[in-house]
Amino acid sequence: MITANIFNIQKFSIHDGPGIRTTVFFKGCPLRCLWCHNPESQQTEKEMLYDREKCVLCGNCVRVCPEGAVKIENNSVTTDMDKCSGCGKCVTYCIPGARQIAGREYTVHEVLNEVIKDIVFYDKSKGGVTLSGGEPLIHIDFVEELLRNLKERSIHTAVDTSGAVSFENLKRAAAYTDVFLYDIKLMDDEKHAEYIGMSNKLILDNLKKLSQIHSNINLRMPIIEGINADEDHIEQTIEFIEGLNIQKVNLLPYHDIARHKYKKLGLDYMDDRMSKPSDEKMNRFKEMFEKKGYKVKIGG
Predict the structure, then answer these.
(1) Which end of the chain is more exposed for a tag (fewer CB within 10 A), N or C?
(2) In the beta sheet, which residues pair with residue 99?
(3) Which residues, in sequence order, are CB contacts of 87 under 8 Å at separation 6+?
């Protein structure tokens, strides 16, 4: 039976495609964006998020862990994830709510049963289900089967992808996807490698190929002051997508809402290198796309 590690099934989403949607967030991503809003999505395995500020060092988590994976050291709780089985007992018995497991193995049937609970909202708002992450298309066997089941029930489908996967995966998903939400983060290949961890050549090549087989692609562009908030990046993007099946463009101004997640995961957050671009700059970028005939929205 096919399973995938999923860290959130978010109801009533309004920024991940048309209408009211349910967004399924998959774990695992080939990219390492400096500003990643879902750092708990990067690894494919389950992870423990620990909020030291909430923890009262009561020791319940240590006592109930059947694997002996949890310890109190230096006035903090540590978890050996090599020993952790992900049973969740430590989370259940954590009275102040300082512990959270990111990731749970789902079958396609389990996800389907969860998302169809909101089918009445999809019908009334012309919404549906969005697959996101992480990068959902690294779980292509699971994703293809889920998308096929959704389409059999006439549910609108969207796939939010970085494009950093085999084109064969995109092609398999395309047969059952109503709209792709395709991320373009940086056009400059050297900067892409520096801030995102890999070349953009596969991503851009896949966008061209996808445009040849799919007619509804929305571009999603994070805009970060200090990284890509400049007209050269916008101009290069406009030049690149000319003639492609791009229906809409979403310009997403940087925010640091995920800062607390990095802390819970014990990761550094490089906020000294990033900031939110001004409203004036965002509107200027919007106008640049609109002059070329694109429908543009600032935000999700």
Answers:
(1) N
(2) 50
(3) 66, 67
Domains of the chain as residue ranges with CATH: 3-44+104-298 (3.20.20.70), 49-100 (3.30.70.20)
Helix%, strand%, coil% for the chain, nearest 5: 35, 25, 40
Q: Which residue has the tokens 């862990």?
A: 65
* 206 phi and psi angles, rounded to 5 deg: -65, -35
Contact 219, 182 (CB under 8 A): yes
Is the predicted pLDDT of residue 223 greater than 80, yes or no?
A: yes
Spatial neighbors of 62 by CB under 8 A, at least 6 apart, are 70, 71, 72, 77
* 149's tokens: 């089941």
The token pair at 135 is: 């990068």
pLDDT in tens, 24-49: 999 999 999 999 999 999 999 999 99
CA distance 171 to 210: 7
pLDDT at 271: 76
Is this structure's pTM higher than 0.90?
yes
| Residue 61 Cα to chain centre, angstroms | 30
One-letter amino acid for residue 266 of the chain: G
Torsion sign over Cα 102, 106, 108, 109: negative
In tens, the pLDDT along 191-214 reads 999 999 999 999 999 999 999 999
Q: With contact defined as beta carbons under 8 Å apart, do 37 and 25 qualify?
A: no
Q: What percent of the chain has pLDDT over 70?
A: 100
> Quick one: CA dihedral 225, 34, 199, 179, positive or negative?
negative
Task: Name the token pair of 25.
Answer: 């967030």
